[in-house]
Design a protein that fits this description.
The chain has one domain: Pyruvate-ferredoxin oxidoreductase, PFOR, domain III (Pyruvate-ferredoxin Oxidoreductase, domain 3), CATH 3.40.920.10. The chain is 34% helix and 21% strand. It is built from six helices and six strands; from the N terminus they run βαβββαββαααα. A hairpin with a 7-residue loop joins β2 and β3. The radius of gyration is 15 Å and the shape is globular.
């Protein structure tokens, strides 16, 4: 079983990202769970969401305390919270960032990848200039670093789940899939 923890801020789409990926993995033949953990429910407040996936039925119904991978939708959270809390050694950290963090040494026990999902969301007019919605871009990038689900399954989940700007969201996911850095082909 794989467990993935998503860190974002309210309004960025962290919860929807887990739902999209859950649907994409389900399409690819996995059993999935997706659930949020809210503190203060307001735009901009830190949010956590979780995704579990396995080829076998998932019977566990607890929070995820030792994720295999972490996805960060807002790089300012690196200074606010410990995103590596409980993260298994050599797990992936996917950052929404233009570049790797300057203090990358603190992530030396993990694999680090990054994509400028904010720039991609703005390019495709997802959200507003002050509140870009980065969930579809980050979902595409995550599919690339993990090697699953197929990008076509991500596109299918976007068609099913996202109510507007479907084509722009799919383009954002595909672009992030192609542009994520830190991944060896």
């Amino acid at each position: 079983m794989l467990e993935i923890r998503f860190h974002g801020r309210g309004g960025q789409g962290a919860v929807v990202a887990t739902i999209l990926l859950a649907k994409a993995f389900f399409r690819a033949g996995y059993h999935v769970q997706s659930f949020p953990l809210f503190g203060v429910e307001r735009r901009g407040a830190p949010v956590e969401a979780y995704l579990r996936l396995d080829r076998e039925q998932i019977l566990i119904r607890t929070n995820s305390y030792t994720p295999d991978h972490v996805v960060v939708l807002d790089s300012t959270l690196l200074e606010a919270i410990d995103i590596t809390r409980g993260l298994k050694p050599m797990g992936w950290i996917l950052l929404n960032s233009q570049a790797p963090p300057a203090d990358g040494a603190r992530f030396s026990n993990f694999r680090l990848a990054w994509v400028d999902a904010t720039e991609i969301a703005l390019k495709h007019q997802l959200g507003t200039r002050t509140h870009p919605i980065v969930n579809t871009a980050i979902s595409g990038a995550f599919a690339r670093i993990l090697g699953a689900p197929p990008i076509e399954a991500v596109a299918g989940a976007i068609e099913e789940e996202i109510p507007e700007n479907i084509e722009a969201n799919i383009r954002a996911a595909r672009e992030a899939f192609d542009r994520v850095e830190g991944v060896r082909s």
